[in-house]
Amino acid sequence: MKQSLSYRLLIWAGVAVLLIWSLGPIYWTLASSITPTEDFSARPIHFFPQHFTLDHFSRLFGIDIARIGGVQVWSQFRAALINSIVTSMAATLLCVAISALGAYAFTRIQFPGRGFLFAAVVATLAIPGYAVLIPLYRIMIGLHLVDTYVGIALIYVSAYLPLSLWLLRSVFEALPIALEEAAQLDGAGRLYIFFNIVLPLAGPGLTAAAILTFLGAWGQYLVPLIFSPQATKPLTVLIPEFVTKNFIDYGLITASGSIAIIIPALVVIFLNRYLVSGLLAGSVK
User: Fold this and answer.
1) Does the predicted model carry a pTM greater than 0.70?
2) Is there a single domain that holds both residue 78 and residue 53?
């Protein structure tokens, strides 16, 4: 049936609203990062930069500070960037490894209470994070893991493990069990089958779980604000500190925000097809 002009206009209007809603803040951050400081208070507001500058990035990277002026923040930004990468990557590797083993066990190994245990783990997705912050903080203090890479990575793993477990279980269920049975007839053990047959076939699902975990860990704010106050402080906690009582440094905020956007954006752009195929891997058996 041919669609009417009004229907198509409505569809395009909805798409335009979604694009503006999603990409508008990103554009405003990127545009503001190359806008001179004095233009931030200009009226009327311009949606396109009237002047171009890279001074905010120069300040951020500690380049030509004597000419530009301002506080030296490169050492803090470098440490926060490294912390974000280390904690996100560590959480991703741990979460995917544990969830892959757990999902395979829930899919292929028969044991009492299998369905109940899986449902209990996945049900933790419904528990809001702030509801367990106090007991979690007491546990981390007792284990001396506050403000450590291990501590923050374990918290991220506990947060994203149920989602990865649910996703990979669907992926493993969609894999043909005949290949594993043939390998067992040839004398292959359970671990050999898992690492050499199952994991290569589940590559898209593993990639999807890794992407979702990495993006979630990279964008965390509340957890590192409490558990990573100093030594392991990530970008999400450092950037708001550019807002002081008497001055808001829009230049540093938008420049550092632009860099913080680049890494997850590159992950999604270059691995998008793996993300889509991984999410759809368990939809058809």
Assistant:
1) yes
2) no
